[in-house]
Amino acid sequence: xxxxxxxxxxxxxxxxxxxxxxxxxxxxxxxxxxxxxxxxxxxxxxxxxxxxxxxxxxxxxxxxxxxxxxxxxxxxxxxxxxxxxxxxxxxxxxxxxxxxxxxxxxxxxxxxxxxxxxxxxxxxxxxxxxxxxxxxxxxxxxxxxxxxxxxxxxxxxxxxxxxxxxxxxxxxxxxxxxxxxxxxxxxxxxxxxxxxxxxxxxxxxxxxxxxxxxxxxxxxxxxxxxxxxxxxxxxxxxxxxxxxxxxxxxxxxxxxxxxxxxxxxxxxxxxxxxxxxxxxxx
Length: 282
Hints:
The structure is a single chain. The protein has 282 residues and is mostly helical. The chain folds into two domains: 9-73; 100-278, hpI Integrase, Chain A, CATH 1.10.443.10. The chain is 56% helix and 4% strand.
């Protein structure tokens, strides 16, 4: 998964956990990979459906199929018992999107007179301006951000590099943070990472998630807010204003444009709301 398919570390970790569960299930039945039949696989899927959500089951089935496909391709088993196993099709849920007023409310929360506030403001501005995944944001290094050109370089899923533009407000926020807050957070240190915590270490996913959650609560925003909400909002707001779907796909780093198309449903819902609110005969 790491070397040949170039999958992200989080995906590798999730599939590893899935295969541990697979191994325990068949160990309890005193079966090894060479003895597992299609019937055994069907029993395992039934077990998963009783224990996990449909989304988790779909991922675990995917991990199972890949594992047995690997064993067959390496000649370790003669017949792949999971070959005919179908991955269930899940209905796509619409992503949580903040409106522009809520984005403004969120950005009004950090105290930019303090190092932490400058860092938090720069992180939120840059995340909303670029649509990065939170893992991409926290792994940014200073050399990855071209403040003159307004572009950043990031390594996305599958170790695929892409260039993403960002706007003037985010540029100013990052400059203010680098010249002020970051210098204080990195005092005496030499970390190459852009966003640091008070231990001079890179900001963590969990740390930033807590920051976003707190600011959302302080802003009085009732809906659930995560770092991914800003990525969703970035894509939806661009499409609402006429951005090309293919361009948004490239900026988000989606391999398949069908993944990006979910945001067109969001914009349609928004248009419907506006029509009902503003048309004299809704």
